[in-house]
Amino acid sequence: MHRRRAFLTTVGVVGTVSLAGCSLLEDTFEKSASPAGVGDDALDRTGFAHQETEEISFSETVTALGQSRELRLTNWRVTYAKAVPEVGEDAARFRLFSTPSVTVAGTELNPFDALGNVALFDEVDEEEPEEMDADGDDDEDAEETETRTIETLGEDVTYTRYEMTREIGGQNLSVFVDVGRFSNDGDLLTAIAIHPEILDETENVDDLAASVDHPFEFDMDG
């Protein structure tokens, strides 16, 4: 399934050079990310299935050289899920969030880059992505328990694990949340897995993370 969403925020940035890839003479800056995805072989091995691909439009007002300009970003959120009868259809989820890198004078402007891991998880895990405001704080309920390294897109990426409580299938369950952040082809990418401790999908999550491809071609009519 493919959906388009939109949400809006406003930030101020003072820059002394042009926005990367854009001219400050333009009224509007536009940058688009490419979706990331996982191939069928990894999905077959892990029991996960593609659930949804969402194109999310994000707008913010940027102040550069004392003038306001609108920044328009096209982001992508791709969701894979695994059903377990005792828990529910979305007992485990693996999500890939891609957003374009935007820099001014060597400083990353994209507000999602400034979020902590748990705050970014909360934003990306929103059921309605138009509610994402890229201005969250880390959840105090989350406890960091470990880190591990997984090769993703040819690079060693650190995945941080958190334990917290979330409602899944109408039940309040203790869950593992794994967050890995990396860059590729001009995009900022985040891989996020959430799965109940009673299932412990760690091996499958690691397989999915190692199988991420970007850019990824989806059938947008499917």
Summed up:
The chain is mostly beta strands and 222 residues long. The chain has helices at 40-46, 117-124, 202-210; strands at residues 2-8, 28-32, 37-38, 49-64, 67-84, 88-100, 103-104, 107-108, 143-152, 155-168, 171-184, 187-196, 212-213. It has one domain (2-213).
Summarize the structure in words.
With 222 residues, the chain is mostly beta strands. It has three helices and 13 strands. The strands form three sheets. Strands 1, 2, 4, 5, 6, 9, 10, 11 and 12 form a nine-stranded mixed sheet that branches. Strands 3-13 form a two-stranded antiparallel sheet. β11 (171-184) and β12 (187-196) form a beta hairpin. 36% of the residues are buried. Residues 7-19 have low confidence and may be disordered.
